[in-house]
Amino acid sequence: MLRKKRIRDIKQNLSQFITIFLMIFIGVMAYSGIEAYMQGMKDTADRFYGENNLQDLNVLGTNFSMDDLNQIKKIEHVKNAERKLSVTGTTSEDKTLLINFIEENDISRFYVVEGEKFDASKSGVYLDEFYARENNIKLGDTIKVKYDSLELEEKVLALINVPDHLYDTRDESELYPNRTEFGFAYLSASEISESFIKNLVMKNLGIEDEKLFDQMSPDFHYQDYIPYNTIMVDVEEEESKEQVKQSIEEKIEHALAVMDIKNTSSYVTYQGEIDEGKTYVGVFSGLFLFIAMLSVITTMTRVIQKEQVQIGTLKALGFSNFKVLTHYIGYGFWIALVASLLGLIAGYFLIGNVFIGLEMAFFEIPNGAPSMHSSSYLVAILVVLIVSFITYLTGKKILRENPAETLRTKIPSVKKNSLNFTNQSFFQKFSFSTKWNLRDMIRNKMRTFMGLAGVVGCCMLIVCALGMLDSMNYFVDLQFKQLYHFNYKLNLKEDITDKELQTLKEKYGNKTSKTYGIEIKNGEKKEANNIFITDAKDYVQFVDNKGKIIELDSKEGVYVTYKLASTKGYKLGDELIWHIYGEEKYYTSTIVGFNKDPQNQNMTMTKEYFESLGKEYQPDALYTNVNLENQKNIEGTSTVQDIHSLEEGMEGMLSMMKTMLVLIISIAVILGSIIIYNLGILSYSEKQYQFATLKVLGFDDKRIQKLFIKQNNWIAILSIIIGLPLGYYLTDWLFKTAIEEHYDFGASITIVTYLIASVGTFLVSILVSKFLSRKVKSIDMVSSLKGNE
Amino acid sequence: MNMKQVSHLERERKMENSFIELKNVKKTYLVGEQKMNALDGVDLSMNQGEFVVILGPSGAGKSTLLNLLGGMDSSTSGTIRVGEDVISTYNDARLTNYRAQKVGFIFQFYNIMPTLTVEENVNLIKDVTRTNKDAKEVLKSVGLLKHASKFPSELSGGEQQRVSIARAIMKNPSVLLCDEPTGALDSKTGCEVLKLLKEQCDFDTTVIVVTHNSLIAEVADRVIRIKNGKVESNELNEHPKQIDEVKW
Questions:
Q1: What is the predicted pLDDT for the residue at A175?
Q2: What is the distance between the alpha carbons of residues A142 and A123, in angstroms, rounded to a whole number?
Q3: Which of A228, A700, A782, B120 is most buried when burial is the number of CB atoms within 10 A of its CB?
Q4: Who's near B219: CB < 8 A, 6+ residues apart?
Q5: CB distance B128–A698 less than 8 Å?
């Protein structure tokens, strides 16, 4: 019988139970969805890295011989090693391809999307799936690619994903990958022609006559002279990585640097996305759940409190406290259970799938799928327990009284002390409706607080979601409009001759730079970083922390980015000890200033200072504003980057972000509306008898509606006032803590965002209030007043 | 012509000039699929300045009658006139205005605004109608001046009911409708409240009290008994007692 009562009670209070259901559902859905997305990201990568055997270390150098390879293989804890020659080539369509020549494919194995497995004896190219798709290249098509004098015309054998190429950019100046312009390709080392290697060797030896060379080296075996520049190393276990690294550094003469794969940009960027996501999980989903739960708890408490007389009646009829309690706990338990379960499922399929789908369009990784994280189950269970516990506590409080007391209707009391201040001279001048609403809010502190918290939370989320986009746009602007003042960046060949450089300078100007990979000593540890040597005044500019352009012209020391300085604790005047990768000599440089760089946390020095260290300045990049639109294959350059294509590359990332933000804002708006509606219903039902009295006294419906809307408007306005700055701080905090280490973004939110958030929040609030206030018209004075009695 | 016929004619004559007049008023509610007649052809009249007591058992239709007179509810059929106002023909807006200008209500459970002070509760009336009365004066007249700045929860039940009387008389109502005004009060406090109510008749206000308590009938100018939705009797009390004379 009690079960029937429960079902009918729920039917009677359907709108409140529906809002409770929706709030739990959305809260759990948001939490588990984002959690499933993040866990999915991690699991997808772990699976891919594991199954396709991502290398642990990359040994970088020049001309790795078979001896080098075998020596590495023999090092303790090394499971396997493979050589690779990676060079940057240009296609006949003037696109850039990172060409990798390999001998075997057991480390960093291809995931073949379409086509055949790697076969060293086969002629053809294994092509980047994303690049192929963007350029409409199909299996069996032929592509032409050129590196130096090596010209290849290869049939596409397979479209592949490779575990160390999840996220490839042409160079550091590109913030985001541009798959149309840049991709990777793998070929068997046997595709390298003998003549190309012979020419290379002859050039190195300074021999121009091929016949002479043939006479000098009758046993020339060109495969032995392929200038492999990378050895991928697979280590037995994670812990022995450092030891293996040291052994390679000591034993392998050709090794210039040994890089942990976890420091490579593809790995770091993907991992950064997961780490960033973890903060989103904590912030967005946690906030969603928190706001929803606050509202659920308030509503559930009120729903049970409304049942006071019925609880008294059941007790008077002889029902045991236990029976009454379990009956009422059931209200919360079943609703929470069903809502949580559906929330889990919807979270996985809706949010998890959509977000992973967006990421997988961005990272080149196969079989991306969300994974349900154990914490989601835990949260769902917790939600059910909390809701049940709240109903238990409320019921228990009512049951503590004797039945006679319980059956007595309690007339709401007003504690004079708390309202005293509203009775002072200043408040005396307020209108009836102002005083009435003010006191009603003070009297119902919990309800008011919940309303505020809910609306503040939603306003914050809107500011944050839009603010993140604003901030990204601001930094794109900073990068491309303030820091970069060139149209093209020419990446110079490593072996560019002085003559070629001179010609380039004459044609395109002399604004150049050089970037070195370095290691900075930090106690016993050595930390990888890079140093930017500038001779590109006015073309590559720098800003201080406030975005003001500054000159980096010291000839006495280095400049460090603010973020690097703050993370490492560097101060002005500190001395940094560093060495260039592949060189043993250490330099000591004094920090002479700081600069802000949105995308790279490194050191910068002038060409003059660099030369004062006794080093020869050999640029690797030249910046120009000469129009190079139809220029192909400029002598002495490996690639030419158009600044506009760099900017375009970012559009992809921003559009993905937009989709995510639209989802977050939608959830915030839906949740906000439900919370405002829910608290509106609560506040309406609690005031119904007062409204009925006012109606009896001759107040017309419109005035009563205004009275009701006024309070909700106050809450909305107050929430906006609190929510806007909090939204700013949340965004700033997210950027400063969650974003990858090499970025230095802060919140930069436009007035339009604040306007949208304010108007949006207020509009939602006013629409819901208006909708609810329509109920005033249908107040039946007689039954409302009777009901109260 | 016997006495009964004389009294009937006298009543007919008075009805023509009476201040409140109900003719064949019916109020039907639908309970599930069944029709329930809360009022079943009620004919009544009352004069201005009368202290009227309506008696009857539970469910007789007393409160329904009061609600119709107060414009809180509409009749299913029949005519209701209060002074110049034929309220049975009024729409919602006119009924609201009628309540605002002409009617004062006193409820068993006071129905005063818990978040407004005593004085503010009384002054609330100024938001719906023009009145030249001063809230402080009105509070003085009901003996609550010293409690003017208190909140309702700081007052006793009798005091709260006096607040609701003060609120009602603030607008100088033509009719003061009281639904069990002493129902929640002890006899001494009840007496004080009744005195206050009766005093309003001196200002030409027709005071109508709905009650179970038949003792109140002894102080009334007119006693109407209702049963099963019909008027059982409508009698003038030739010698109403003073409130202090009644043994409560």
A1: 63
A2: 12
A3: A228
A4: B51, B53, B194, B198, B240, B241, B242, B243, B246
A5: yes
Q: What span, in angstroms and rounded, lies between the C-alpha atoms of A352 and B37?
A: 61
Note the helical H segments in A238-282.
Answer: 241-251, 265-280
What pairs with residue A637 in β-bridges? Answer: A492
Name the residue of chain B whose CA is nearest to A443's CA.
B115
Residue B5 lies in a domain: no
Q: Please give the helix or strand (H or E) that residue A449 lies within, else none.
A: helix A445-477
Shortest distance between the Cα of A395 and any Cα of chain B, in A, equals: 26
Residue pLDDT, tens place only, A533-589: 999 888 999 998 888 888 888 888 999 999 989 888 899 999 999 998 878 789 999
Using the predicted structure, report yes or no on whether residue B201 has a pLDDT greater than 70.
yes
**Chain A interface includes B116 (CB < 8 A):** yes
Whether B2 is in a domain gets the answer no
Domain that holds residue B131: 47-73+92-242
Measured CA distances, A642 to A523, A639, A647 (Å): 41, 10, 9
> Which residue is closest to A699 within chain B, CA to CA?
B128
Contact A265, A167 (CB under 8 A): yes
Residue of B29, B110, B111, B129 to mutate for A, most A C-beta atoms under 10 A: B111
CATH number at residue B170: 3.40.50.300
**Residue B13: Cβ within 10 Å count:** 10
Chain A residues touching B125 at Cβ < 8 A:
697
Interface confidence (ipTM) of the complex = 0.74
Substitution target in B113, B126, B129, B174 with the highest count of A β-carbons within 10 Å is B113
Residues of A in contact with B127 (CB under 8 A): 432, 699, 703
DSSP annotation of A493: P
Residue of A nearest to B101 (CA): A698
CA distance B217 to chain A (A): 24
Segment B223-228 mean pLDDT? 92
* B92 contact partners, CB below 8 Å, separation of at least 6: A701
Which chain A residues are Cβ-neighbours of B163 within 8 angstroms?
none
Decide if B230 is inside a domain. yes
| DSSP letter string, A287-335 | HHHHHHHHHHHHHHHHHHHHTHHHHHHHHHTT--HHHHHHHHHHHHHHH
Residue of chain A whose Cα is closest to the Cα of B103: A697
Q: Provide the sign of the torsion angle of the four alpha carbons B172, B175, B179, B185, taken in this order.
A: positive
Whole-number pLDDT of residue A751: 94
Lowest mean pLDDT segment, chosen from A11-15, A384-388, A391-395, B61-65: A11-15
Question: In this structure, what are the phi and psi dihedrals at residue B4, rounded to the nearest 5 degrees?
Answer: -65, -40
A-chain residues within 8 Å CB-CB of B105? 696-697
pLDDT surpassing 70 at residue A415: no
Beta-strand relationship, A78-91 and A142-147: antiparallel
Taking the C-alpha atoms of residue A135 and residue A132, their distance in angstroms, rounded to an integer, is 5
Token pair, residue B1, equals 């012509």
Give the per-residue pLDDT at A721: 95
Measured CA to CA, the distance from residue A705 to residue A726 in angstroms comes to 31
Among the partner residues A423, A690, A788, nearest to B113 by beta-carbon distance: A690
Determine the distance in angstroms separating the CA of A777 from the nearest CA of chain B, rounded to an integer: 10
Cα gap A454→A444, rounded to integer Å: 15
For residue B24, being part of any structural domain is answered with no
Tally the domains of chain B.
1
Pairing verdict, β B77-82 and B20-31: antiparallel
> In chain A, which residues have their Cβ closer than 8 Å to the Cβ of B63?
782
From B176, B162, B178, B175, select the one nearest B212 (Cα to Cα).
B178
Per-state percent for chain A, helix, strand, coil, to nearest 5: 55, 20, 25
